[in-house]
From TrEMBL:
Lineage: Eukaryota, Viridiplantae, Streptophyta, Embryophyta, Tracheophyta
SUPFAM superfamilies registered for this protein in UniProt: Isocitrate/Isopropylmalate dehydrogenase-like
Entry EC no(s): 1.1.1.85
Record-given protein name: 3-isopropylmalate dehydrogenase
UniProt keyword terms in alphabetical order: Amino-acid biosynthesis, Branched-chain amino acid biosynthesis, Leucine biosynthesis, Magnesium, Manganese, Metal-binding, NAD, Oxidoreductase
PANTHER family: 3-ISOPROPYLMALATE DEHYDROGENASE
Cofactor remark from the record: Binds 1 Mg(2+) or Mn(2+) ion per subunit.
Assembly notes: Homodimer.
Class in the EC hierarchy, top level: oxidoreductase
UniProt keyword Transmembrane, yes or no: no
Length: 407
């Protein structure tokens, strides 16, 4: 649904013109006051919202509010179009990724996804699973590079399951290849072997261009961080990994300023919990990246805190929290919206090049945590337990207060 341009209020903020109206259900009275004077936006972007399933609509609603306010304060206006995807699309039109949804995503400047999946659709045939829609979306947008930061914030170091001295100061970026490897390789399917037994099979395959392009993204990312890149593979066993390592070494010649190392995936999984601070930037293939980035997320204390960006050579990027749809807490105001809010910040930074607006959001999240507000997944004694909506309201207050302090 495209919201219409008009005067509006966000959770009690002073009117903003022109803006795009939120659904009434997403509004909640608050005492937030926007200190900035209304002005004509200098930039306009089209954003496709894919709320999805479970807690997806709840966290997307929060992130949308935050985007609108941070954008307004930087002279940016957003045109939001909400489209069905995942289980909600299956219920609505019978497929997990409707053609109309993919077309809208392709035509937009960026895509913000909530979460997809749920118990309701677990027994569906593969082509009718919500997760198939996500793979189709990634392939359709040609977003081959997935950036997943795993940073232990000082405010949440005690929420990590690792000892404080191990978790404190961890700041890792996982660069995962997203549209190749065993998730997409062919041949794949079911059959029988020479003994007549039923089998299932998948193919791990990478072409030169696929490895080279993700390697360049990883080297560029490492160059902007601390200049260290660890390529993770299984080159002692798998031919596809041997080829992966060969191509990474070849591309490394273009980046003499970046320190390159290699590690087998089983060792990398162990080292991530043994000594995570040894890593700066990690690059790896689709399946290893899927697993290692989830492992790295738990070092931070909660998967509910971590955003991600999926980027291609051109066209819109896809931005989403790395957590699932959590159907067991859906519609109970228990979800942590901060991963989606931080995904919105990544959308601004990596998708639109709007670093100032992104920094507003990042600072607001830190400020909100500094004030002691916590959802259930990151709660500890001495802090204030809040729900999804109230956490969103507190982030909005912090976004707004940055301006109030500056004028």
């Amino acid at each position: 649904m495209i919201a219409s341009a008009s005067s509006m209020q966000i959770n009690g903020l002073h009117p903003i013109r022109p803006m795009f109206l939120l659904k009434p259900a997403s509004l909640r009275p608050s005492r937030i006051r926007c200190a900035a004077a209304t002005s004509k936006p200098s930039k306009r972007y089209s954003i496709t919202l894919l709320p999805g399933d479970g807690i997806g609509p709840e966290v997307i609603s929060v992130a949308k509010n935050v985007l609108i306010l941070a954008g307004f304060l930087e002279g940016i206006e957003f045109n939001f179009q909400e489209m069905p995807m995942g289980g909600s699309a299956l219920d609505l039109v019978g497929v997990p990724l409707p053609d109309e949804t993919l077309l809208a995503a392709k035509k937009s400047d960026a895509v913000l996804l909530g979460a997809i999946g749920g118990y309701k659709w677990d027994k569906n045939e593969k082509h009718l699973k919500p997760e198939t829609g996500l793979l189709q979306l990634r392939e359709g947008l040609e977003v081959f590079a997935n950036l997943r930061p795993a940073t232990v914030l000082p405010q949440l170091v005690d929420a990590s399951t690792l000892k404080k001295e191990v978790a404190e100061g961890v700041d890792v970026m996982v660069v995962r290849e997203l549209t190749g490897g065993i998730y997409f390789g062919k041949p794949r399917g079911f059959g029988t072997n020479e003994d007549g037994e039923e089998i299932g099979f998948n193919t791990e395959v990478y072409a030169t261009y696929e490895v080279d392009r993700i390697a360049r993204v990883a080297f560029e990312t490492a160059r902007k961080r601390h200049g260290k890149l660890c390529s993770v593979d299984k080159a002692n066993v798998l031919e596809a990994s041997m080829f992966w390592r060969k191509r990474v070494i070849a591309v490394a010649a273009e980046y003499p300023d970046v320190e390159l190392s290699h590690m087998y995936v089983d060792n990398a999984a162990m080292q991530l919990v043994r000594n995570p601070k040894q890593f700066d930037t990690i690059m790896t293939n689709n399946i290893f990246g899927d697993i290692l980035s989830d492992e790295a997320s738990m070092i931070t204390g909660s998967i509910g805190m971590l955003p991600s960006a999926s980027l291609g050579s051109s066209g819109p990027g896809l931005f989403e929290p790395i957590h699932g749809s959590a159907p067991d807490i859906a519609n109970q105001d228990k979800a942590n919206p901060l991963a989606t809010v931080l995904s919105a910040a990544m959308l601004l930074k990596y998708g639109l090049g709007e670093e100032n607006a992104a920094k507003r959001i990042e600072n607001a999240v830190l400020d909100t945590l500094n004030k002691g507000f916590r959802t259930g997944d990151i709660y500890s004694a001495g802090n204030k337990l809040v729900g999804c909506k109230e956490m969103g309201e507190e982030v909005l207050k912090s976004v707004d207060s940055q301006v109030a302090a500056a004028v």
